[in-house]
Design a protein that fits this description.
single chain, about 300 residues, alpha+beta, three-stranded antiparallel β-sheet, elongated, signal
Length: about 300
């Protein structure tokens, strides 16, 4: 009797499970072309005064094996369908062309282009970017102080938030600091006011502009001083360069005069004669000068030189 009861219980449970599975299968909308109703004026904004207002075409839709955030249903093959419409504004017939899906497939929502190639690899079977570094990142991706490596998100995250944030602020894990709460931000937007991110208070936009304009002259004066200083330094460099070139040129002339004296240099002798020296040969010259005055009153000088050569 107990055996018969056990068998009856097993059969009843099996029938119940099959019934539930069948109900799930019948209600589960798999990915395939489905007859879809479209509103014409929403799909085609220029067709505002047409009739009928709605049309039916096949569009891909339904579930895939993975979550919709990972995989979605996309059209694989399709063809164009021309649907006639009546234009109530012009009383003429018109038409629209729309794509009618004939087959579908499940595709990844993400693509390899969504991966960060310096740290992630694309996994087609899983439709996700897989982190390459499970334990710790390399030196070029090392986390700074206050951050830790999160292999699930493949990036550095805040190690731990502070025990509490100042008033009107909350912990922002992306910025890794306390920032103004969304409530404060929304309140300032409703009041059409600006937000002071330091105190998290709503302030007038004009006050923010005045604060910015007060800081602007200081920065402008600093830039002007830098420009003047640069001009002065450039001028000094030009003057110093000119002096150096001038001194080098003068030194070069004096040096050449010392190394290369003139070939013929006259000198007066004790007898009143002029002596010319040229290498190892010396010449004594007897100089005689006479002058004549012509009828116009002009004076003409005549010089006679008699030389004696001595070795």
């Amino acid at each position: 009797m107990k055996v018969l009861s056990s068998i009856l219980f097993v059969l009843t449970f099996y029938a119940y499970v099959n019934c539930i599975a069948h109900s799930f299968d019948s209600s589960h909308a798999m990915c395939k072309p489905r007859l879809t109703v479209l509103q014409v004026d929403k799909e085609f904004s220029e067709k505002e005064y047409v009739y009928p207002y709605h049309i039916q075409v096949h569009q891909c839709g339904g579930s895939c094996k993975a979550h919709p955030s990972i995989q979605n249903c996309k059209p694989k093959t399709m063809h164009e369908v021309k649907i006639p419409l009546y234009d109530r504004k012009t009383s003429l017939m018109t038409h629209v062309i729309i794509q009618n899906h004939t087959s579908c497939y499940c595709d990844c929502v993400k693509s390899p282009m969504d991966c960060r190639f310096d740290r992630e690899d694309w996994k087609q079977d899983q439709c996700l970017c897989n982190c390459r570094y499970k334990e710790a990142p390399p030196k070029d991706l090392a986390c700074k102080a206050g951050f830790r490596w999160d292999s699930n998100d493949c990036r550095c995250r805040c190690d731990r938030p502070p025990s509490s944030c100042p008033p009107r602020k909350e912990w922002n894990k992306d910025a890794c600091e306390c920032t103004c709460t969304k409530r404060v931000i929304n309140r300032c937007q409703r009041k059409m006011k600006g937000l002071d991110y330091e105190s998290c208070e709503c302030v007038d936009v004009e006050a923010l502009k005045l604060r910015g304009s007060a800081a602007q002259p200081k920065s402008g004066l600093y830039i002007s001083l830098l420009i003047v200083l640069a001009v002065v330094v450039f001028g000094l460099l030009c003057v110093i360069t000119h002096l150096i070139i001038k001194l080098k040129r003068r030194h070069s002339i004096e040096y050449n005069q010392e190394r290369c004296p003139s070939k013929t240099s006259p000198s007066m002798t004790d007898s009143g004669n002029m002596s010319y020296s040229n290498g190892s040969v010396a010449r004594d010259a007897d100089v005689r000068t006479s002058h004549q005055t012509d009828s116009n009153g002009s004076v003409h000088f005549t010089t006679q030189i008699s030389r004696e050569s001595t070795l």
